Every structure is written in structure tokens, then in C-alpha cells.
Amino acid sequence: MRSCQLRELGRIDYGAAFLLQQELVAQRKQGRIGDQLLLLEHPHVITLGRNGSLEHVLAGDDVLARAGISFHPTDRGGDVTYHGPGQLVGYPILDLRDWKRDVGAYVRALEQVIIDTLADFAIEAGRIPKLTGVWVDGRKIAAIGVHLSRWVTSHGFALNVATDLTYFQYIVPCGLTKPVTSMAQLGVAANLSEVSRALAGHFGRVFDCEMLLETPVLAASGK
Question: Among 157, 25, 45, which Cα is nearest to 91's?
């Protein structure tokens, strides 16, 4: 069975996490490391995917600054999204040549990991045809946006655990005028650590790999 190193990074700035992803992707391409799963939390940030529209950011720079929200264009797929405290963010660094060379299957697998994780907390979640992400009664609880380079993945998913949903007022989430929700809003008082461990277990099962806990790496080394 393949192994996957689990890195629990705590709260980390989006830019630092992006640099770390780039470093790990380069190492994975070179075969210097195996598959990785980064689980973390970001300070308030809005990110815009490579196919996104700035029109879906509903506030100017000054308003975002006053709200304590930073802004980052990024190279993932998808449109605009929000990350912040109380949200579990996952960045898998996987070589899909060792799993399935199928981007659609990869995205569906990420959705399944989240659906199965939510089931552990008695939340019945699912998919909406032709839309990416995980949904509960028509409300989005998890967003997915990925990037692939030579079959190595980066970016990933964001699951609203105890997220302050008022911050979504500054964007049109993923370009869709659909409401968002969180585990807390649905009455589940789980902390990020509990959800992280449950999710890591389902990730290992869905991707058929043994999860190995790694000592956290807080920033890219620059080497």
C-alpha cells in the first residue's frame, strides 16, 4: 500500500502555504518525497482562481482591508472563494500516476472524502449535478479547486467547520449565487482537530494509502 504523509500545519498565512505547496510539488515531481496531505487553517483571505472573475469579488481593496481580509490571485481551478478561521483547508500533493490519471475521478474522490467525513458527524451531504463541491440541502459546505502539473496535484478543498459565514458576503462563492453553510450552523459543535483526524482517515481509505503523521513544516525552506 502507498503511504501519504499527513502534515497538520495549524493556522498559516495563505502566501506561506502556497510557497510550501510549490516546494512540495517540485520535490514530488523529482521523486524526493511521497504523497502529502496538508491540513490547515488560514487567516481571513479571498482567493481568485485562474478562471475566476474579479466581478465576483464584491468589495474593494479598502473595504477588504478594513475587514482584515487579504486577497490572493492563484493558479488553482475554479472562481473566487473565501478562507478563514474555523475552516478546514486541505492541500493534497499527490502524483496521480500512482492512483488514477483522471482529473474528474480525483475531484469526485475529494468530494467523497468530505461526504464520508460529514457522515461521521451525522451530516448527510452530497453532490449537485454539474457543480463541484459538497452540499447539504442546496447549501455549499465545502469548496474544491485544484491544480495539476505533470499529474502532481496542488490546492484542494475547504470545509466549513465553524466558519464565520458572514465573510462570504464579500464574494459570490465560486461564481454561484447559492447559499453556504457550515457544520456549526447545522448544529454540530466539532473542532478542527476532530474533523481533521476523521477526514485524514477517510482520505487514506478513498485514495487507498496509509496515512503517516508528519512533524509540521511551517514554511518553505527556500532550498
Answer: 157
Phi, psi values for residue 120, rounded to 5°: -60, -25
| Domain positions in the chain | 2-214
Angle at 212 between CA 208 and CA 217, to 5 degrees: 125
CB atoms within 10 A of CB 166: 8
Could you report the per-residue pLDDT of 176-199, keeping only the tens digit for each? Answer: 667 999 999 999 999 999 999 999
Give me the count of residues in the chain. Answer: 223
Q: Are 150 and 30 contacting, i.e. CB atoms less than 8 angstroms apart?
A: no
- Assess if CATH 3.30.930.10 describes domain 2-214: yes
d(CA 25, CA 153): 7
Residue type, 148: L
Give the span between the Cα atoms of 218 and 12, in whole angstroms: 7
- In DSSP terms, 72 is beta-bridged to 47
Predicted TM-score of the model (pTM): 0.91
State yes or no: pLDDT of 91 exceeds 70: yes
Is 174 a catalytic site residue?
yes
Catalytic residue among 25, 80, 141, 174: 174
Q: What's the CA gap between 6 and 21, in Å, rounded? A: 13
Residue 220 in this model has a pLDDT that exceeds 70: no
Residue the block writes with cell 459538497: 134
For residue 155, what is its C-alpha cell? Answer: 490546492
